[in-house]
Amino acid sequence: MQPGSQDPRIEGMYRGDRAWAIGAVVVLWLTVLFVFVQILPDTGTSAVVAALAVAGGLVLLFNTASITALVRHYREDKSHIYGLDLHYLDEMKNRK
């Protein structure tokens, strides 16, 4: 079987990677929001709160956008990406 030719393992690998990526983004959001809420009482001025909110928002925006782009790229080219992995995994299994 050629790499990527309708191998059901490709879809499974893609779903697993997508789940891990979504989980990582959720954990990032929860962590940033938790830290923001926890440090609010110690921030002092509203300018500091605004700076922290903008900086945290940018971190969340850029990281979420990059993970979204990564998952989209994997979906568009999953036959090549995962097919190559499966090819070499099968080669290693055959050598044993």
Overview of this structure, please?
By secondary structure, the chain is mainly α. The chain has one domain (8-95). 84% of the residues lie in helices and 0% in strands. Helix 1 (8-39) runs antiparallel to helix 2 and helix 1 packs across helix 3. The radius of gyration is 20 Å and the shape is elongated. 3% of the residues are buried. The model has no long low-confidence stretch (mean pLDDT 91). The chain crosses the membrane at residues 20-41, 47-71. Keywords: Membrane, Transmembrane, Transmembrane helix.
Name the helicity range: over 70%
User: Which oligomeric state applies?
Assistant: single chain
Largest sheet: none
Which geometry do the CA atoms define? elongated
Strand content: under 5%
Secondary-structure element string: HHH
Ranges where pLDDT stays below 50 over 5 or more residues in a row are: none
How many domains is the backbone divided into? 1
Our count of helices gives 3
Structural class: mainly alpha
Q: What is the residue-mean pLDDT, rounded to a whole number?
A: 91
- SS elements, strand count: 0
Radius of gyration from the CA trace? 20 Å
| Distance, first to last CA | 19 Å
How would you describe this structure in keywords?
96 residues; mainly alpha; 3 helices; 84% helix
Q: Helices and strands in order, then pairings?
A:
Elements: H1 8-39, H2 46-76, H3 78-95
Helix pairs in contact: 1-2, 1-3
Task: Produce a short descriptive summary.
The protein is mainly α and about 100 residues long. It has helices spanning about 10-40, 45-75, 80-95.
